[in-house]
Amino acid sequence: MDLSPLTAISPIDGRYADKTAPLRDVFSEFGLIQRRVRVEIAWLLALCDAPGLPETGTLTPAQRAEIQAIADGFSLADAERVKAIEATTRHDVKAVEYLIRERLPKDCAHLSEFIHFACTSEDINNMAHALQLRDGLAVLRAERDRLTDALAALANDTIALPMLAHTHGQPASPTTLGKELAVFVHRLRRQAARIDATELPAKMNGAVGNYNAHVAAAPDVDWPALSRRVIEGFGLVQNPYTTQIESHDGMAELFDALQRWNMVLLDLDRDVWMYVSMRYLKQKVVAGEVGSSTMPHKINPIDFENSEGNLGLANAILGHLARKLPVSRMQRDLTDSTAIRNVGAGFAYTLIAILSTLRGLGRMSPNEEALAADLNHAWEVLAEPIQTVMRRYGVPNAYEKLKALTRGHAMTREALADFIATLEIPEADKARLTAMTPADYIGLAAQMAIAR
Question: Rounded to an integer, what distance in angstroms lies between the CA atom of residue 60 and that of residue 410?
Answer without folding.
Answer: 88
